[in-house]
## 1
Amino acid sequence: MSTVASIVATTDLAILVYFLALNSFYAVLLVLSIPEIWEQTRVAEDDDFQRLMQSDALPPITILVPAYNESATIEASVTAILTLEYRNYEVVVVNDGSRDDTMEKLRHAFDLYEIPRIYPETIPTTSLRALYRSRSRSRLTVLDKENGGKADSLNAAINASRFPLVIAVDADTLIEPDALLRLTRPFLLGREIAAVGGTVRVANNCTVQDGRVTDARVPGRLLPGVQVVEYLRAFLFGRLGWNRLGGNLIISGAFGLFRKQYVAAIGGYHTSSIVEDLDLVVRLHRYLRHNKIRYEMPFIPDPVAWTEVPESMKVLSRQRERWHRGLIAAMWTYKSMLLNPRYGRVGMLAMPFYAFGEMLAPLIEVLGYVITIGGFAFGMVNLSFALLFVLVAWGYGMLLSLWAVVLEEVSFRRYRRFGDLVRLLLFASLENFGYRQCTVWWRLKAFASVWKRTHVWGEMTRKGFAATP
Amino acid sequence: MAVVQGVLLGSLVVLVILNRWFRLRRAARVHPRRLAVDASLRRWIAGTTPLTGVLVGLARLPVTLAIDTLVSWSARVPGERWRRLAVALEQQWWARLVRTNSGSARWWKRLESARFLSVAAVPSDAARLVRLINDTHPAVHIAAVAALERIENTSLTLAALERLPRLPPTVQAYYAAMLQRSRPAVVQHLGKRLRRVDDPALPRLTEFAGRLAEPALRECITALAEHSDREVRIQVARAMGSFPHRESVTALRAAAADASWEVRAQAARSLGMITDASTLPLLRAALRDEMWWVRLRAALALMRFGAAGRNALLEAEVGADPATRNVAKLVLGLPAQALAEFAA
């Protein structure tokens, strides 16, 4: 019995130390994000920069819009993208063999006419049915192709793009009118940019008019509400903190700008990957480091895209399970980069954090719950230790979520109403009681899926923006 | 420990709420002052009130807001009147403080100073502005270079011109736009620099010279047409489109046969801008280039030749070569706006 007790106590202590280390690393990210957000807001508010950003000097951009069965929203989404505040850009929409009338809607709404293909297929994709341009919108090109998935569509759009910078945008994502201008800021600052990511925020409960979020609100319901806090935490201090550490591994697939030459050099998006954006960014790091190319992949917080998040447990669980499955797959595929000094901070810091921190966290957390509860029940763990575990695992998490709200409040203040602020604070406090344990469970299921080699995308059910108040 | 953590969490919540409250109060206090300054500036421009009212109003605003006000009004006030305001501001305590900050160790203070001087500099600020143009922080030097819009000073122009080749393309284009206003000094200096064939800044300087489209620089640019650096040849081929001259056409004929496809593409584009009828066969031949981008540029260039170019494309559209056929079909079908966008 004493041997078992000693094993339980040691394991519990090890888990406690693990959580302390993990949360302390998050705290480091938080501390690093403070000067970063301060600098970024300072430059973002500068009028001269605004003037420069509206000049002809800006680099031309191709916006890639993959669409699969988007009949209900495609016209509004593409119209909104075509009215962004940016001088020099084109839009390439890819109809990925939709089974509904997405293509018909596009053809009718934008007066499309067929054109021959003059560019080479730099990245192999499924076969192209036809290529169209619009008579009414000179910036628009539409590709109609056989179904091949999102990654394949993005590759087809990259092949058809004319400009050196490409930005992948989901057809159901709402981009703020000045987001492209803001996203190009690092280029204006003279940095050697390989890719740059902007913020994705939660659009549920916001007022949407003509494809634009006109009034940002925090949802009243728990599930989407907590996700607002999660997104704030992930973007406002997670990625900003990584800017200072130079190891940003995630640039959101819903809103990220890439230098096309590098994306083409690594063969574009992997069609077999589960989370194509993470996979792409890791491969970009690997390629650029291999070839000793100086580069940065910063995240900048003020360009904003809005997306709808799941409001039901079922859809959310599928989404989170898939994200985690993608993380496990990426960590496994690129394990040679882990703790490899050849990859600099990415290999020595970012990869270990994602592998041992983000990927293993649900396993260890569940183990912690089981051992602490079991040990407490059998008298092998005392009450003060069990409380300490809860404090470290949950209390620290709550502190970090609240800090994310603080960062939002001192920088961008998108949620103007006092009621929204109170909701944010409330959700940041409630997140650790129930919701956190659910996400742990969903992420744990991802390990089982990987073990069983299940590869299911998981359909995202959306309410659509037209129904929002 | 639990108590400490609880207190910490509680204080965070209080901090967030207090911060919101404080900001709202501050905005309520400052906003009317800003409106008052806007009103007095309007009256001053109309000539119904003396400048003193504006100066007093500006002094009552927080410095950042005062600078914002000046920046936003600077484009709306006629030059001579604005110069009077700039001179009057020289004596203001807060403006003196902002000027002093041009040497601050903190970049945001220097940025504030650069923004202020970009709209309110007087001739005696030239040395300060040169220092700010050479600043290491991009936001600072970008703000400072805007002063070239208002001040004509050779040392300032040369400082910006020296910096230009070392800047990334986007910022370079912005500098170029600012430098266009100081054309005589720029042309003279650029002429000298373009003669140094081993200057590593040559590609960027050639690009800038192309943007200026200054006839006095044509000879210097044409002389670089056979430069060993591919990047220089690309920029020369692009720049020559702005100089419709027979020497340009001769140089572009050679560029159209360059080993680098980027040079060939730019040559085709420039030939389209000059539209010399004798180059039509050259562009027809370029429609069969091995690189699709050159074929596209040649087809777009042909569209600028009017009926002759269009006929050439119509012939190509029914020709034997599928690649040529496709590019001709694409370009012939482009609406006018799309053509302009493609050709840019």
Note: Chain B is about 70% helix and 0% strand.
## 2
Amino acid sequence: MMNAIEFRKVTKRFGGFTANRDLSFSVKKGSIHGLIGENGAGKSTAMKVLFGIHPADSGEILIENRPVRIANPVHAMRLGIGMVHQHFMLAGPETVLDNIILGHEPGRMFVGRARAEAELTAIAKTYGLDFDRWDRPVSELSVGEQQRVEILKLLYQKSQVLILDEPTAVLTPQEVKDLFGNLVKLKEEGKTIILISHKLKEVLGYCDEITVIRRGETVGSRSASETDESELARMMVGREVSFTYQGDRKVFANAGDMKPVMRVERLSIASSTEPLRDVSFDLKPGEILGVAGVQGNGQSTLLRALSHPARHGRSWSGEYLLNGRSHSDSDPIALRNAGVGLVPEDRLTEGLLLNQDMTENFLLGQHEDPRYSKNGFLLRAKARAVTESKIKEFDIRPPHPTVWTGRMSGGNQQKLVIARALDPGPSVLYVAHPTRGVDVGAIEKIHDAIIQERNRGKAILLFSSELDELIDLCDRMLVFYNGMVRAQFTRSEFDPWAIGRVMGGGDR
Amino acid sequence: MKNSEKVRIPQSVRLFFRSLAGAAGGLALGLLICRVAGESPGKVLSVLVNSSFGSGYDFGMTLFYTAYFILAGLAVAIPFKSGLFNIGGEGQLTIGALAAAWAGVVGAGIQSHTLAILFATASAFVAGGLWGAIPGYLKARRGSHEVITTIMMNFIAAGVTSYFTLYSLKDPDSSQAETIPIPEAFQLKPFALFNGAPMGELIIALAVMTVVLHVIMRNSVWGYRLKATGENESAASTFGIPAPASWLSSMFVAGGIAGLTGLVEVLGNSHRFKIGFSADYGFVGIAVALVARGNILGILPSAFLFGVLQKGAGSLDLETDKVTRDLTYIIQGLIILGVASDGLWDWFAGFWRRRNA
């Protein structure tokens, strides 16, 4: 079988940093090829080299066995390479049709929409992509449909090789299944697909061959039928990794009878983008309560409400109790004093001061704590000493409190954010996306820390877009849909398909 | 410490020397321009040095200008910590100066020197502070961009001070646009050392104030809050540091410090408020803060540098044939460019590495 793409000793440096070193692998024509590796391993750089965004420093790339120099993305597209970026490149208010034909309008003087539409309908039919909403604005489509538009765009451009960067990150399990169904049909029609992912189950389930990259180098390629999750993980990380939590899951015998430490009663938040409607639940010591849902169904609003009620003013209605006391208009400092620890949704925009060192970041939110300040002045030496001990405890690297957090890897940043949330010894923890953009090695450490806190009797509310993570860690789960709690599951009832159905608005 | 660890020069010290080198580079370029203009760079340099350091009086005048620039520079550097760009130093300092003159008029009965100075200081600080707090409030409340509002506040300040100077505080015995002179008790005595150059003891007080401010900004909870807001507004607010409080307080303090110009100008120099006393000191303050890279302590050397250039400017008119005071503005500009072109350093370093690789 012919190779659609071949990398031969491709090296790409940025200044002193080598993102890809002698990267070599080949992708067979008409196959689905998985490209996996930890964050920062160099997968995206390799694909950007292929797509002509960065020129390679040395080595060569062959397309259908012919060496080519890919100068820029336009050139790459002409060579039949197309890419679906992780964040879609679509213009929301414009129609599906206009988005697809942008830059490739069929007419000379006029756009030629009718011709384009006819052609697209034919393409959709050929590849079995069920789609006919050409005149709808893209912003009205679901995330899954938007992704289909991106794929149609590549097909319309007659791309032979389709690169998909983390395509399943934003999809429900059902949408993931549809996506892969479509990809298989594309493969059958002779297209070649390169799938960038870090979800081993997916690549194992749908790819023909898988290439693992670690620290910019090819570790090896495996046929999907001849490998398994643990081998791939070992190749990615360089050591053994466990996927499900292996440690002690102490059962709280009387968890059912424990008094809740936190309770929300009929909480509604008016918001034009992501409202919350009449949400009630409680949280007991020693349990992890998961919050599941497709992004945008109220989970973010819930977390913002619980971590900063004061900010909501008149858009807030309902009751929010911690240890029986109302906190419906508290600010983060008051909540922290009431025993709440917070790991925000996005550590880069909400969690860290990237141009400051670890000590300064450790102080964020604790700057008024009597342990770290006195008479209006910070006790920095103390804060630094504690930061140093947290660095040891959580194995944060590089292990120096003077390192700017902006220069640390995602996993280490997250460990610092978690260490900070746990420092005051909170009784309630709100943890959002603890392992988003975190490398496999650090995930274990973070999951371990969360379970440990639970076993110590902390009440934990865990927000995550990774259903596997929730299923693995939680004792109970709330599934959000359209701003409401649509269903509740207890651990014995966890079933990804049932939960996925509810996430998509169906019944359990 | 382990032996293997290299001796590390603190970042702040390295940046200081970088700035110094940048300033020197800018100055050198400026002198090159003299050359093109047909004046000997050596002559220009000696005129500048002589004019600023030549005598006790000259040095006293240099310090006098430095005092303006310290205040104006701080007024920019402090809000900068909280992420705001204060272009309104000029308005804040004129309002502060007017308030100091007003204090002298209404407090004419005060006999105690200390009390008089305290009253004038408080008036100047509060007036300048409130003037600065208005854009801070608009930013916090309505999200109005501070660059626009502070610029507009400068114009309003000019109008307000004109009105008071010409109508309510006008000196009836003067044909100039100036207020009634302040009484003896309010006046600051110059050092004998400087042969009658104005404003003596204040320069020491300002240096001490700058050091204290530096410590406050670095080590206080308030300074931390400003920094957190400036670095990442949304992270700060997620963890209980509301941006509006940081903006409002930093603009109040900045305006207040700019307002202290009233002490330099009214109490220390002309003993009354004169329309147009400021040679755009408030705007030069932006350059002072830039050259100091927003570092509070760095304001002192930076302000001194601008003091030297300001003092030397007048002499260039008189003592050279081909260049005028405009050259000092060119030099100021080049110095800012030299300091601001920080990326060049990394470029040079990279170039050097590649050559020696």
Note: The radius of gyration of chain B is 22 Å.
## 3
Amino acid sequence: MTIQITQADYAALLAHARAELPNEACGLLAGQADGTVRRIQKIYCLTNTDHSPEHFSLDPREQLAAVKDMRANGLQPLGNFHSHPASPARPSAEDIRLAYDANASYLILSLAGEAPVLKGFRIAGGAAEAVEMLVV
Amino acid sequence: MKITIAGDKKEYPEGLTVAQLIALEQVETPEYVTVSLNDDFVAGGTFEATVLQEGDSVEFLYFMGGGAA
């Protein structure tokens, strides 16, 4: 599987993550799935109700509004993203344990190094598998 | 009666509860699903007592969270 995100959406995601420091930032991804390619066409920057540098939970009311917006705009829900302010871009044990939707794509943006690192994953059956991530 | 589920109108028997709807819709891992009914969230312990009405609109939302720890 390949996940494509536009430069503009990547920039928005990065800006949201930096604005939320030192806490984790999070949000939803929407777009189109075409075979093994998922094209992100809109990101939704949501509130991390945990307000924590090590945990995140999407605000369910904002989540509901985002889902309705996706439907109104003919977009498919593709998954979610969150940031790791001080750790690598890989799913933690908690990320894996709380990934209930096997059909979702999970993006993690690490701000731990000098340059941000964005990676995509599929998480199912208690295991995470990296997928190709393209910024186009 | 007609109920809208995630934007799709469907026909269901009268007197259906949220808990019964979750079972009928075969919602996966329902313990981690939040239910909204006409844009209000249904409290977790009240699914069996919440009876749906004609024209209701229901959404199932997966809890999404995690952590870096």
Note: The beta strands of chain A are 2-5, 26-34, 37-46, 55-57, 76-84, 105-110, 117-124, 127-135.
